[in-house]
Each structure stands twice: as structure tokens, then as C-alpha cells.
Fold each of these.
Amino acid sequence: MVSGMAGMMSGTSDNNFPAAIRLGLCCIFKNEPIRFRSTTAKYLRQFPRDVQRAQLSTICQHNCLSLLAGLRFVQHYGIGAFRVLSPFFPRYTHPDVGYTITDLPEHQKILHTLSQIKQYQDRHDIRLSFHPDQFIILSSPQPQVVANSINELEYQGLLAEYIGAETITMHGGGKYDDKESALLRFTNNFHRLSPRVTSRLTLENDDRVYTVHDLIPICTRLNIPLVYDVHHHRCNPDGLSVEVATELALRSWDRVGREPYFHLSSPKNGWQEGRPEPHADYIDPADFPECWKNLRITVDIEAKAKELAVLALKKTFTV
DNA sequence: GCATGTCAAGTTGTG
DNA sequence: CACAACTTGACATGC
């Protein structure tokens, strides 16, 4: 036990950023020399199967070690959450060059590193999440799009289980002229997912189509939480205030007894001119909602300067 | 070495 | 009607 005074004076905790707020870093690092590798199907296709698998094996193990290094970094700097990039195991579900972990020559080493990651995140209470990209859509009228999306979600669910990741956050998808029937398709397809995925799945309001107002009913019906992205809400308003949207999101997490996840970013070109959607390098502290400051929540920071932006925001709240 | 074009995938809105 | 934008970068290729 450290005394209050000693705690305040010591190392990395010497700021008054709201203690209950956990900041999260998304996917990659800017300055820190931690890199994730990837590859393309086109490149892999020129090699025979066994060569492909050797290359993929090297990349997967490299990425596992990078994630472990990344977790040590965030732990050291008091960053409490990390979002894992989607191509962590690149092309895993690709129809031509896809694979399973046991296909990889170094799979025993890889499984070992995955379990080290899980152990580390558990010991240091670092929240891990996945955020499938824009092609992953459960509301599409095209069966093939949905089938591909389910495969990809199952892949992320599997990895999430291996590394102890808690959430897989996705968007509502397209509108297709009728949000209501689109969300009905989402609901039907949700029930095709394994418990490994459904227990982790969350919905996030996006900057073009689905708002908090649109998603709250389906979140309630499916008993899944809503990840509230306040930047998207400001880009794509729905008549709800930030305070009310925050309250609705909190309730959805409370219902499942988990710490809420919110997203924050600042517009690259300001709120006045041009499109506000592109993300800025850093977070303008003025964009941090006042009503979040006394909550026990996780806030993922979506900013191009990555770890520098997270640390700068922490510092803003210092003294 | 460094600049450039390309990379699995869907959808919407802009010009 | 084509194309950029989306969480964006990483990589192979060619100069």
C-alpha cells in the first residue's frame, strides 16, 4: 500500500486526469518502434501453399510479439486499453490464401505468444478490443457479403478468445433505402454467430448512417452494449444531446455489467470548414465531453498521432 | 534509398 | 457516373 502522498508523487501517475477514465490506444504506434506486418493475397498467390504458410507464420508470430511489446508500452505509460488491428493475422479468412492457426509451421510458438498476451492483459487489466473494418456488414441484402462478414467476425472472435479481448465493435452497415428492414436483417444474422462472437459484439454509431437513436432499440433487443462515438454523433446528429446519448450508452453497458467503451476524435479540418469526418493528429481537449469526466469509462482515442495523442491528452488534464 | 501505386472485401455521398 | 472516404498503413516495385 502506498500512501496518498507517495502515490501522487510517484512516476507515471502524477497527473489529475480523471482517475476513473481509462484511455485507449488504437491499433498502431507513431513514434514507438513497434510495427505490425501485413501482406496481400496477390503477393501470396505467386508462391506455392507451403511457402505462403511459412511467410504467414512469420508475420503472425511477428505481430504477436509486437502486440506483447505494445501492451508493455501502454502499461508503462498508464494507457488502459488497446485496439487490435483487423489484419493481425493477415488474410486469415481470404477465400484463396486463407488458413487456420494449425496450418502455420510455427503454430506452437504462436499459440504460446498468444497465451502470453492474454496473461499480460489479464495481470495488468488492459482492455483489448477489435474493430472490424467497413466491409464487415450484417445488414447487407447480399447473402455473400453477410457470409464473408460472419467468417471474419468468427476469426476475430477466435483471436479475441486467445488473447482475452473483450469486445468486437461494429457498425450498423448500409441503409439500403430502409434502415428498419436493414436492422431486421442485422438481427437475424446476429443469431447466426457463435456465442464467442455474440458475447463480445457491440454496436457503434457511425458518421453517416446509423445514429445512437437508431441503434439503442436494437442494442436493447439483442442485449448488447452501444459504443458511443461522440465525434460520429457530432458529424451525424440525431436530435439527442451528448448528455442524453451518453446516458443511453451507459445504460446499455450497465445492463451487461461491464465498463463502458466510448470513442473520441477531433476533426482534422475543424468543425467549420470542409468535412469534419477525417481525424486530426491530436485531440482538442475542448472535444472531450464535460459530462464524461466523472464517469468510470474507457475512451478509445482515434487520432493520427496515436500514442503521442493519448499521452498529450493525459497531460492536458495534468495540474 | 526513396517515391509511387496497389492492396479482399461495401456503401454512401460528392463532384 | 466515377471516385473518394471510411480506423489507414504496409508492401512490392521501379527508378
Note: Residues 38-43, 91, 93-97, 133-137, 140, 142, 145, 148-149, 152, 173-176, 208-209 of chain A lie near DNA strand B (CB under 10 Å from a C1').
Amino acid sequence: MASADDSALIWTRAEPGTRRPKFTRDQIASTALSIADTEGFAAVSMRRIASELGAGTMTLYYYVRTKDELIVLMDDAIMREVLIPADEFPAHWYDALTAVAERTWDVLMRHPWALRSLQNAPTGPNAMRHFEQSLAALAATRLAATAKFALLAVVDDYVHGNVLRAAEFRAAKTSTVDEEVIEAAVHFAESQYATGEFPHTQELFGGKDPREVFPRLIGAESERDRFRHGLAMVLGGAARRLDLPLR
Amino acid sequence: MASADDSALIWTRAEPGTRRPKFTRDQIASTALSIADTEGFAAVSMRRIASELGAGTMTLYYYVRTKDELIVLMDDAIMREVLIPADEFPAHWYDALTAVAERTWDVLMRHPWALRSLQNAPTGPNAMRHFEQSLAALAATRLAATAKFALLAVVDDYVHGNVLRAAEFRAAKTSTVDEEVIEAAVHFAESQYATGEFPHTQELFGGKDPREVFPRLIGAESERDRFRHGLAMVLGGAARRLDLPLR
DNA sequence: CTGTTGTTCGTACGCTGTACCAACAACGCT
DNA sequence: AGCGTTGTTGGTACAGCGTACGAACAACAG
């Protein structure tokens, strides 16, 4: 019988506090978050967080059992941003699901390291709230529970997959790549075209500067608009399959 | 002007070999892959790979500049598995795209650590072949290049997002979680329901053993079938938007 | 058989997460 | 007010990581 203080789950283990400690779990998590946002997830180390807080490294281990637990806290802090204020919650399932998906996208794109780095943690309180909101979006439909589950899964999959790629794409655009690397890449691509193995790719890129071709292929839309169009495709296809009213 | 041996890109840098070296890049990459498959990506260290090969650790650095380059090789080795034999390539765009997506799914699920761990590497030869196959799938359609790009992106996003979740789900089912952790999680969930903040979630899970409820929510379908149904939704929605013939 | 140089790998450095334990300080009790 | 308990802090140490450096070995040309 696990008492409150030796629980295996951080959510059921009481935060220390009978004699005012210097820090809080929230404080530690948000410090970790801001390091990750400004310098990337790799820069988040226990020593780094501690020195940011003006504490000894091992002090953190009084608030958290392992670094993984700290990551769980980071995860939950991010999920908090995903929640939609109750008074902004749309009534129609399509609008509600769109709002949830777009907000999730916005948040994950603000923390592009998150999807790759956060182990999919045991569901914390804010992840639960997010799930509740997702169910609420479909409450007015008369879908069976399994159909709701399937629909939410498809939307979630698309959102996460899109962020995974879009975040990386944005990073690639932002970071200054050595001219030398680009040149080598172009050279490599051309040598591959020369094998004749890549007719379609060559038709698109062959002989041209990829930095000029790429934007044209992508079109004038912003990343976010491209995401929204993809989302519309997904929701449209789902509505058709599940016989849901599109509007 | 980068000569063949000091190129910034591993693909354009010649593999050593004027005096027969002990190993090949392929050998090293496949050793790394098998370690990752059997013990997880975290177990892949330079020392570990080397000892598996009976070599000194630093020997690997003769074949590869950094561990990241080795990861690029792993990535490309995985992409090789994704390629569809030419004689199995379906003619109709829907079937072709489905085949590419399903094969990608199968491979990524065999290497569940891959999506999370492999930096999205600069496109290697097998990634190029995969992209060529994706374009080939849409060659018979008369879509504009930008539309092809958008469609492929949506499908890719869904596939990757689904693998991200499904792989983790499978891992969760496989690994033996401490009874203690499950108990703590159930306890935590119940205490959250008690706040009244989670009516929809509670209706689904409240008071029941989640290990019994979950399979029922998911339904009788296999992971793979659930993926295929989601894919059909996505392709259906895309076909509608892009005015493509579904069959 | 020798000189060149491609190939191997031992040592060392700074980084990581964290186990262990000594020291400090806040509070309840007398 | 002073003492004892114990919640809280954090120093030291250890095994592991990626990899820079450079010495040693060995394959081949002459």
C-alpha cells in the first residue's frame, strides 16, 4: 500500500513542503522549459537547471526522483498550454475538433523539441484535461465510443506527424547551414540523377537550385495554412466515413 | 572545392578502402541497427558498437566523423527496407500511395525507436528512392506539382504520427509495468474524476479497470487495421479535395 | 628490405545522471 | 530560550557518454 510520499507516480506523490523548501516542482519545470526553448532540449541537464535556479545540482532530486520525472513535469506544463478556455469552446464538433487540433499545433510548434524528446509520459492532469476536451468536442455527435476514439486518434496522429516534419523544416530554414554542405548535397543529388534512377525527382529539381525550387513547390501558403488544409482533408475524410455532418 | 575525401556530407565522401580496412560502413550501421532493435536506441553507443564488432572504439571514427553521421547511416539503412520492389508497384494512384504508406508503417513499426531517435537526416540515397516512388505513385494523376507535394505531405504526416503513437502503445503493452505503478495511476485517475472536472472521461473509464476498458474502446481491430482505416479516411478526404478518382 | 601512409586504437577530457551521505536549518516541544 | 527531530540542501564520487589527439601497427610500392 503506497503512502502519499513513496508513490511510484509523481502525480500521486505529494510535493514536499512541511518546512518551506526553496523551490517548487512548477518552478523547476518551467526553468527546464525555458532552457529547452532557447537552447534546445539537449541543453537541459540537471546541473544546468540547478545553476539557473542558483541551487546545488542534487537539490533537484529532492523534488523529483529522476530526470525522467522532470521530463514528465515538462510534458504536463506543455499540455497546460494546449487547453482551450471554456468560453472559447466551439459547439459544432468540426469546429471544436479543429480548434483543439490547431491549438495543439500552435503549442507544439512553439516547443519543437517536445515531440521528439518527451517520452510519451504517463498521463498527467493537463493531458487528462486535454483528453476530456477532445471527448467534449465529440459529445454532441452520436458516435459510439470506439468511433470517437478512432476519430480522435486519426486527428492526433496527423497533428503530431505534421508537427514532427514542420518543426524540423522550420529549424532547417532557420539554422545557417554551411555553404559547403549545401554544395555537397546538390552535387550528390545531381550525381544520383545521372544514374537515370530518378526521373520524377529530376523533373522537379534537376539542374535547378533547390533553394529556389522548394518554395515554389510548397506554394505561397504559410506552414500553418498548409497544416489547416491537411487537417480539413483529414476531417473531411473522417466525416464521410463516419457519416458526420460537415456543418 | 571539396574533394571526395573531405566532403561535409557522408554521401559524397568516399568510403575508405585503398588498403583493405577491417570493416565497412554498412557493417557498422547494421551492427548499430541490431543493437537498437534488441535493446533500444539508448543502448547504441560508440563503445558498444565497437565491442560488438571486436574493434577499438576509436576505430569507428575512421569510417564516420561523428555519431550523428552513423545515425544518418542507420536512417538510410531503414529507408532501404521501405522501398517497394518495382514489380509490386500498383498502377492506380490510390493503391500505390496505400502500398507506400503501409510499407513505411510496417518498417517503422519494426524499428519503433527510429522516428524519435533519428534526426531527420539530410536525404540519403534510399530516402531519395523512397521519394521517387512517392512521386511515381502520383505520376499518372494530372495534379500540379504543388498539389502532389501537399498530398504526399499529408499522407506522410499521418503515417509518422500514427507510428509515433502506435509504437509507444505497443511498447506499453509489451513491457511489464509494475503493479504498483498501475495502482497509483488508477488511484490518481479516480481522484481526478472526483473533482467533477472530467464528466466524459469518467463516463468511459470511471470505476472500471482501465485494462479491461481500453481494449473494448479500441475494438477488435489490429493496430495495423486501425492504421489502414485511418489511412483510408485521409486518402478519401484528400481525393475529395483534390478531385482525384477514388477507383 | 625500406619508406610511406592507410588503418587501428589507448589515453584523456569534459560532459552526463545520480547514489550516498554529511551538513544545515526550521520547527515542535519542553 | 534551548534542544532534539527531521525536512532540506548540496558536495563528492562513480560509471557512462562522445570524441580529440597522437602513438603504434601493418599493408603495399619501390
Note: The mean pLDDT of chain A is 92.
Amino acid sequence: MSDFVTLKSNSDFRRLYNRGKAVTDPALVVYYSKNRAGICRIGITTSKKIGNAVERNRSRRVIREAFRKVCPQLNPCYDIVLVARSKTKYLKSTYIEEVLKKIFENEGMLKSESDGE
RNA sequence: UCGGUAAAAUGGGCAAUCGCGGAUGCGAUUUAUCGUAGACGAGGAAAGUCCGGGCAUCUCACGGCAGGGUAACUGCUAACGGCAGCCGAGGGUAACCUUAGGGAAAGUGCAACAGAGAUAUACCGCCGAACUUAUUCGGUAAGGGUGGAAAGGCGAGGUAAGAGCUCACCGGCAUAGUGGAGACAUUAUGGCCAUGUAAACCCUACCCGAUGCAACACCGACUGGGGUGCGCCGUGCAGCGAAUUUUAUUCGCAACCCCGAAGGGUGGCUAGAGCCAUUUGGCAACAAAUGGCGUAGAUAGAUGAUUGCCUUAAACGACAGAACCCGGCUUACAGUUUUACCGAUAAG
RNA sequence: CUGGGUGUGGCGCAGUUGGUAGCGCGCUUGACUGGGGGUCAAGAGGCCGGAAGUUCAAGUCUUCUCACUCAGA
């Protein structure tokens, strides 16, 4: 069912910010790097810049929902950190889903590509 | 009819699919896990953290000091700085509205500039005396000007001129009586009363021990050093053993605390001073009785996505996310409804 | 979550016991210089984060509120 695990420790986030690849979009920022766990691990960051608690929660939920939809198509060997930006709270999950798909396609992280469609 | 201001209420409902947290039930066994079903699952302010309480700990208990808070009175309450009623003061023609509202003859401080003078004073003026018209001495706060504030106000008597010096009225103070639960109101008598500031220090009365669920308890891991009767003082009582004859002190152990190391799990964790309706008591806040209702409890932190139907003018809409729990206060708030007021237009 | 601190000219800061707010840098104008820099002289720029209150008078005192920031864990 759940193909991904959440990143929790501060050191994991630090590692991705320093060594991972970064892709920016007006909607959000994606940091990622390969891991050997054979499973997707994901962390979502919503800083205080975005707004109050309601707006931060909203951003986090929308991003998680979008990622959940995209997740099955993803190669299960990545650590990913998704950072919300100030625009994120006004967007819908369907839009973010498209953005995420586009980013992962460009970076060659999708499963369909490795299978050779 | 339209627009605005203030206050109060409300802050859509039902259902489906995928996804999340999950009390609990069932099955399996390695008795603590796995699988499966799964009720239920953010607010009126959950916010700010401004007050009050529960609960927990501080090797015991009591009293005081320091420190902090509140300030008319009566009641409500677990308690409050909250609420209700009432009194005083201020504003208003009135209905009514506002109000941190003890003490300034217990003491200290401050009152810039202006002004003669700021808590004690004589600049101009008025009056008297000396007497050379000038000037000096004395009396005087009625008049002048300054100031936020100038010695209770105003009128009459009185006087050399004046002055509560005397008197009437008013204001304020003290004592006594009456009414009231009380703040206080009112009447009589007395004396003739020294500005403001206590949200300056302070005094008076009353209240408060401190720290907070990251409290605290248990399990697991880790094991070195330092200290100790609640911020201070006093009194009682100070766990066990040893040393010095006793007093008392010192040492060791126990207990607890702090620093270093370790920083994981379980409990605490949600039924509570609970909510609603009716009746009774009360002006009211509120209380009592009877009946009914009712599972958020996460721990990097659960409520999202898609869609249908109904109510509706519209419902995608505002402010906003529980983190131990309650009672208040304060602040934020789209749309709708109600009440009060204001403005414009139209009609009478 | 708990407990502190700070908001004052464009920037960085003073302003103790309430009495009409200053300093340095920067800015404008003028002088000295052939010009720049530098120095000297003069000047502008503030309702002290916001709203109430106490007081004769509030940057200062009290209450509420809005930002920013630090510490504990």
C-alpha cells in the first residue's frame, strides 16, 4: 500500500540539501538523491515563511496527496525532499501532481522509462 | 429602498470512491507482534498566553520576611483581575452611557517654562507710620497679570485697608442620630478647614510558597564528577551507621538535586467544577431537582482529493488548526439573520 | 511549549529619577582647490511600531495590540 516512508531526522534533510540535486518550480522545490534502501523516502518542508499553521498544514497535505498519486510510477530508489513555496497554499493538488510528473520525467526518475515502454 | 456603524446569533447538511490517525472486536501465534473489520476523528475563537483553578513534583511541617498582585460595596463561583446587582463620580434635556473608584493633616520626592511667589511668598496695587513729593518700615491676599494649580466660592457686615474676623447660602471635614445587608444617603451640631501627583516612592486592607505534562511515574540504555533540609530567616522534627567522654562537628551509606554522558519506549491522555431542556428559588449572575445527550487524543505530528444530492441569493470562499484539562478576559472574522442608531432617496 | 529582549531621521544607535529629541555615517547648499578627495560653514529630514488611559504635561508611567529577535528543551 504505502510505497514510501517519511524522512524524520534532521541529518537526512541536511544531507539532501547539501548533496542532493535540486529542481525548482514556481509551485515547489524538489531535492533528491539515490539511495540503496529499495524504497522511496520522502520529507516535506513547510517553513514559517509560508504563513500561519493552517496555511502550512494545507500546503503539506496538498503536496502529500499529489505525491501519493505520482508515487506508483516512480522508481523506488530515491530520497526526496519537497519544499513548499509561498505560492503553494493557493494551488490545487491536481496542478502539483502535473508539476511533479513533469519534473520526475525530465530527471528520468519514472519507472516507465526504465522498463522501456 | 439603498449604504454604513455597533452588539448578539450562526460559522451548511447528507452520501459515495481513494487516502490518513485510530479506541475496540475477531483470527493467528514468537505474549508481544502480524492480519482483518473498524465506531469516531479541530474551533467560536482551538489564537494571544493576560488572569484564575485542577493535577504533579520540590529529602517534612508551621510562622515570618522579601517579592508580586488587587483596590467602593454586596453577592455568584472551585477560584479569579471574571460575572451580576447596587453606591459614588463624570457626561447627557431624557431614556441611558462611561468609570484601575482606598489613603495626599504618617512621611519623603517632584511640579519644567512663565510668574513677585509653587508650599511658602508682597512685584504692581490698597492702607498706616517715619517723613525731604523720592525713599524706608509695617499691615493686607479685595483687585492686576502668570500658570494646569495662587490659599474654600459668593454676598452682606466689619475695618485704616483687609482678612472665616463675623453671619446667611453652597462645597468640604469631624461627631451624633435615623434608614439600608453594605458602600452610602439624609438630618442636627461643631469648628472655619493647606494645590496637584500614589498608572512617583510609600502607607492601609485583602490575596499569593515555587516550578510546570518537555511536570511527573515506570521500563530500557548509560554510568564519571560536584552538591543538598523549598529565594532568605526562625521554630519543631530531622533515615541508618561510625569517630571524638557529652554538647556539637566530621566521615561513609541511603535519598534527592545539578553538570557531563544518554537522549528510546509505556503510562500521564481525556467523563469533565460537562452540555441541553423543563420546573422551583433569586432583580440578576447563579444554584437545586427531574429527564435526556455524549468516545479527537496525534507525537516530525492524523481531516486531503474527486463527485453527487438537498437547504440556500450563494455555499470555492472570512478569521483560523487541539498538543494535559477546565473557568474567564482580549484580539481576528466572509456571508446570512436579528436588534439599536446614523446618512441618502421617495412618499405622507 | 515556556521565558526574556528590541521597535526613535535613509542606516546604526543615545535619550537614568515624566518638562516640546539628540549623536555618528549618509543627503542638500556654499566656501577653500585648476578638478576630485578632504576640511570648514549652513541646512533639510522625526508626531518616537499602533490604539486607549493616568497626568497640567508621556519617547519615558499603565493596559491592550502588531512586528522582529534571543534563550531553554
Note: Residues 113-117 of chain A have pLDDT under 50 and may be disordered.
Amino acid sequence: MPRSGAEARRRLREAALELYLERGFDQTTAAEIAARAGVNERTFFRHFPDKREVLFDGDGDLRAALAQAVAEAPDGLEPFAVLLHAFRRSAQELENTRPYSEPRWKVIAATPALRERELAKHAWLVEAVAEALRRRGTAAGVADLAARTGWAAYQHAVQAWVDEPAQGLSVHLERAFDELRALSSTAPPGPDRTPPN
Amino acid sequence: MPRSGAEARRRLREAALELYLERGFDQTTAAEIAARAGVNERTFFRHFPDKREVLFDGDGDLRAALAQAVAEAPDGLEPFAVLLHAFRRSAQELENTRPYSEPRWKVIAATPALRERELAKHAWLVEAVAEALRRRGTAAGVADLAARTGWAAYQHAVQAWVDEPAQGLSVHLERAFDELRALSSTAPPGPDRTPPN
DNA sequence: CCCCGTTGTGTCAGTAACTGGCACTACGTA
DNA sequence: TACGTAGTGCCAGTTACTGACACAACGGGG
């Protein structure tokens, strides 16, 4: 009975998260998730290509939102300022939905296979950010470098915020970019040649 | 016959790479790899925890080399200068072994599951770099930020080098760090507040 | 020289992630 | 009311991986 499709998908997401939390990702079978969601195991794999992806269903929207935030940044901004603009929006969303997202983070952090998938998703987001920068006219090479390093700073800030939520994520974000400026301003341009060994 | 153990392992690495190149990762079974290496399928999984890991066997050494290069950088250098020192060494190794490594890169680039694993390995390397920085006295937060962003710049350089090998990797590496300095020096410290929506 | 602990391997049975194919059911629409 | 479509159940099959047990080669000590 194909009542809604989207409904089954929602229940599958829910059931998967619950079970992953209760008994761990590795100790949970796709059949169990499907059973709790009231559908067949086969149906699970029709909605999600694999057992991990069920936890990353919202990443498509996130990617779109990120690209849009980059596109909507005021004209004339330098690449890092554009990224700061976009990351602030994304960070706002993170702060708002933290209570809902936290159990999900917990499962991912505890499961190597899920952390792998998360890194892959991040790479996918970085590509979107780089492309959005290019659309604004940023040179391809610079866009790639800015997206990669800017994302790295963002992730550092998120980690710091998770460890120390007292200060808002936006505070950590500003600090990360400030510290990055301090770090890179000290690097000597000259090569320090070491003898080849 | 446990002639050597390390020998079987070497043959397994070799056979796996060959088969992944010939017919693709997904179209290759562990049993086939084992057969070509002259051992049992079970033996494959005794040497490698899964089908992907067989392509990343050298990453332990790389991690150690990277940590050592960070440790051996001259005293008194700022974090990014230390990283530049370490990445130059790593880059030298990359340039030297490129012909041997290229087929491996090709397989990884063509296989999503392998790119996932590669990203996980990179995260593991970044952790090692951050820890090595901390051992030198760099504050934990700064070490994490520097390792993440420095690695991002390094990977940008590697990508640029793969796309355009005419200039050496070290040239791309210097340029990446220079461009990163230029990028981050332009970011405005003040927050540009956008109304919450 | 033989005994023995260690290490690497082969074999077998089993679990579970996924996939393809086919039939069926609900639903919107002409 | 007939029909196309989307979502689902069921079944059979492949393959990644695991645990258990037995066996073979090697090394050293008596």
C-alpha cells in the first residue's frame, strides 16, 4: 500500500536513528529498521542506497542552501568574506536545530563507517561551495582553495562549538577565521631547502 | 604454507590493484583477488579488514613520516611554516613515486567507495599532524585549525599538480600557501549581520 | 634430533548487505 | 470505469565479511 512514500521514508529515518542509538549501527540490521518502520526490508533499500545513507538524507537540502547562501552574499566581497557570510547562515541553522541533531551526531561520532560517509558528504559540500564561488566570478583555482580551507576552518569552529557550546557557534566561527589569518600571515614565503635524501 | 606472510600480502596488494584497474573495483570479488595472488579468500581478509583497505596499506608509514617531518622541523617556526616544511618532504616523496602511484590514484578517483576511504585516511593524517604540532608546544586549538586548513591547502596543491604536472608539486605547494595568505588577509573581521529569517 | 609453541594458512558454515525480477495494490486521471 | 504510475511485498541470488577448527611450516630449546 503506497499510501505516501514520503511517509515511509520518514519513518525509516526515524526508526534507523532510534535503533542505531539503542544498539549501535553495526548491531542493527536493515531488516530490523524496516520492521520498526512497518515496511519490508526491500523497501528500505528502495528509499536509501545503503544502511548509512539513511542518516544523511537532509544533505541535499544543505548543499542547496549553502550554494544559495554563497550566491546571495553581497556583491564585491572577497571569497573568504563570501564564505563567512554563507557559513554564518549555515551555523545559524545548526544552532537552531542542535537538540534535534545531537543524537545523530552521537551515532556518527561513534561509528567509523558513518564518519567516512560524513567526510564524503563534506567533500560534496565543498565542491558545491567552490562551484558557487565560481559562479560569482571567482577564478577556479582560487575558488577551490578558498572552499577547501574555508570549510576546514568552519569544521574546526563546529568542533570547538560542540566541545564548548557556551559560546555560540558564530563566535567560534569568527575566531577560526581570525586565527587563520594570524596563522597564514606568519608563514615565510621563502622555501627552506632541505637536502634531498 | 606460511612461507612469508609479508609475501602473500604483497601479492594481494598487487593482484588487487591489477584487477581493480582491469575490470573495476565493484566488478572484482575478493575471491578473484585471492586467486590471482595464489591464496585463499579467507587469507585476503586476514591481511586486510576489507576490500578497500588493500589499496591503503602504506598509509601507516605515511602517517609516521608526516608526524616525524613535523617533529623534525627547525625550532622556532610558526605552525604554518612547520607544516610547509613537512608537506615539502611529503611532496618530494609524492613526486618521486608518482609513476608507481598513478594507477592507484586512477582507481581511487573512479570509485566512490574508495574515495570515501581516502578521505577517512586523510582525516587520520590530519589528526597525526595536529598531534605532532601539539608535541612541539602549539596550543591544541591552534594545532587543530592549522592542521585542518594547512592540509586543505596541501590537497589543493596536489590536485593542481595532478591537473598540471609541468610545474613541480613544490611550486604548487608554495603557491597554495601564498594564495591562502592573500585570501585570509582580505576577510573583514567585523560581522556582517543579516536579519534572521 | 625431536618436541613444541608460534604464525600463517585452508576449509566450512553462517550472517547480512545489497540487487534484480515479478506480481500486486493504491491512487490520480482521462 | 479503464488505465497508467508509483510504491510496495516477495523471492532468489550474489558477495563481503566472520568465527571456528584443523593443518602445515618455521624457529628455538632440550
Note: Residues 98 and 105 of chain B are 10 Å apart (CA to CA).
